[in-house]
Amino acid sequence: MCCKLKSISALLLVMSLFVFSNAKLVAAKKTKKQNVLLIFTDDHRYSGVHALGKQDVKTPNIDALADNGIVFTNTYLMGAFSGATCMPSRAMLLTGRQLFRLKGQGREIPEDQTTIGETFKQAGYNTNMVGKWHQDTKSLVRSFDSGSTVMGIGVYLTDHYRMPLWDWDKEGTFDKKDAYLLEYDENGKTVRRAITKDDKRGPIGTEKTAPHTSEIFADNAINYIKDYKEKDPFFMYLAFHAPHDPRQAPKKYRDMYPADSIQLTPSYMPQHPFDNGHMVLRDEALAPWPRTAEIARQQLADYYAIITHLDAQIGRVIASLKESGQYENTLIVFAGDSGLAVGCHGLMGKQSVYDEDGIHVPFIISGANVADKGKRIDALSYTFDIFPTICDLTGLSIPESVDGKSLVPVIKEEKEQIRDYTYHAYRQHQRAYRKGDYKLIEFVRAKDYDRKSKSEIVSGSRVTLLFNYKKDPWETTNLAFLPEYKEVLEGMQKEMKEKAVELGDYKEHVDYAYDFWDFY
User: Fold this and answer.
1) Quick one: which of 367, 392, 379, 458 has its CA closest to 422?
2) In Å, how far are 454, 475, 494, 499 from 485, measured between CA atoms?
């Protein structure tokens, strides 16, 4: 009997050790650091995702991210002091700093501004970067352990099929002579070649001559995920160049969008009704004036085609996470860097503070571990709030240099808003202020510098617009001149001036030659 009791005791001890051991494994599994995949697209407006804007564009893979995650319906770019709005937008995403606290126009990220890549690197993540970089190379190499097919560092041929690329350079040199192109040889194999003086700018490549940038960047992301064997988690910044112009896509995707079947947006206009201060630049030269319905439909068809092609590549990347077993432990963040007009308000580019035309962007947090799948959050936010939100979700400390606010309290329903207004700027000609149901946009006639003539010019118009953006999200009905909105208008104007001072929106602070407020 004594022996039996000893045997039973021994068995119970083994079983308890087994249970305790398994409990520790489960706990370890629960506390394991998640991988983070941050996907950033270029000139991709909020309504450029079907699940968000319900437009004609087909985006089944991004829609799936929305269905399996959280959609933020009111995320905005704060603005830009450059026609290349993707430069400050990326600086804001990468540093979590607001527009008026960037260095200059956002090209350089000083060492005292901690980047999102550095933050994850310091936390023990392996950091990797693929695709477009619009900042200085020193901040690039200090942010990531590795990378591949980097673009955007001083050589550009305006062609998704002939994109100058660089291999990762841990020294940050990225010399122009080291840039190369990828193309197909006579056997259809992808080969690289050096760039020569005979390589002219312009969208002349096709799917028969070379792989598209979206395919190249997706391939490199997939290879990294597939080959990843490290115990530490990874942080990947996957920065696509699409759907930035030229709006090139394989024929299969172009055929999905017959131009005559495309529905125009509610804010379509053949011509912008006044000079917004930056009407003559490359983006606006992509289509003739006026933007007839036929022209606008064709531009939209091309825009939707490159987005659907991009969506397919994003789908391939997500599939690689699932095939490698990484999906269950990866936080997927998807966002765009700016809006794009493509016919809205008679414009083509993104050099404005209208919502879809310039500042309203998609922002989705998705993945297997995200609760409240399919949730929509209307809280106001900026793209520079993405950085602290990701830190908060993954348990990392938010660097002191970050201005943005985490959206986690809103996700957890502890708060309804983290902000009660948004403020936007475009160069010295445009300002916008949004609060409650209303959005104020002020345009001024201001001095500017013309590079071609190398002389000072004056451009723009003094115009005030007031929209009820809850009822009129496409910003089609100006309420500013109606007597019943006089009190709302004056209150918004007063508050906008106050916020400008609080945020540091004046030329001495932002190191910009001209100040909107000198002309207002």
Assistant:
1) 379
2) 43, 16, 14, 21
Q: Where are the alpha helices (H) located in 170-292, listed in sequence order?
A: 213-227, 251-254
C-alpha closest to that of 346 among 303, 301, 284, 278? 284
- Bond from prior residue into 290 cis (ω within 30 degrees of 0): yes
Radius of gyration of the chain (CA): 25
Q: What is the pLDDT along the chain (520 residues), one digit of tens a residue?
A: 444 444 444 444 434 443 333 333 333 334 579 999 999 999 999 999 999 999 999 999 999 999 999 999 999 999 999 999 999 999 999 999 999 999 999 999 999 999 999 999 999 999 999 999 999 999 999 999 999 999 999 899 999 999 999 999 999 999 999 999 999 999 999 999 999 999 999 999 999 999 999 999 999 999 999 999 999 999 999 999 999 999 999 999 999 999 999 999 999 999 999 999 999 899 999 999 999 999 999 999 999 999 999 999 999 999 999 999 999 999 999 999 999 999 999 999 999 999 999 999 999 999 998 988 999 999 999 999 999 999 999 999 999 999 999 999 999 999 999 999 999 999 999 999 999 999 999 999 999 998 888 999 999 999 999 999 999 999 999 999 999 999 999 999 999 999 999 999 988 888 888 999 999 9
Backbone angles phi, psi at 385, to 5 degrees: -85, -10
Q: Which two tokens stand for residue 520?
A: 């207002």
Give DSSP secondary structure letters for 152-201: -SS---S-TTS--BB---TT----GGG-EEEEE-TTS-EEEEE--TT--S
- Closest Cα partner for 41 from 407, 390, 426, 383? 383
Both tokens of 284, joined, read 């606006």
Q: How many CB atoms lie within 10 A of CB 449?
A: 11
Peptide bond just before 258 cis, omega within 30 deg: no
The torsion angles phi and psi of 375, rounded to 5 degrees, stand at -70, 140
Kindly tell me the burial class for residue 391, based on how many C-beta atoms sit within 10 Å of its own C-beta (0-12, 13-18, 19 or more): buried
According to DSSP, the residues that pair with 463 across neighbouring strands are: 443
Where in 362-502 does DSSP place strands (E)? 363-366, 375-377, 381-382, 421-426, 430-435, 438-443, 446-450, 455-459, 463-468
Other beta carbons less than 10 A from residue 111's beta carbon: 10
How buried is residue 43: exposed, middle or buried, by Cβ count under 10 Å (0-12/13-18/19+)? buried
List, in sequence order, every beta strand (DSSP E) within 240-390.
330-336, 360-361, 363-366, 375-377, 381-382
Tokens representing residue 96 in the block: 């979590």
Whether the CB-CB separation of 444 and 520 falls below 8 Å is answered with: yes
Q: Are 386 and 91 in contact (CB under 8 A)?
A: no
Picking from 487, 368, 493, the residue whose alpha carbon sits closest to that of residue 37 is 368
User: Are the C-beta atoms of residues 465 and 485 closer than 8 Å to each other?
Assistant: no
Tell me how crowded residue 32 is: count the other CB atoms within 10 A of its CB: 11
Residue 148's nearest CA partner among 238, 41, 39 is 238
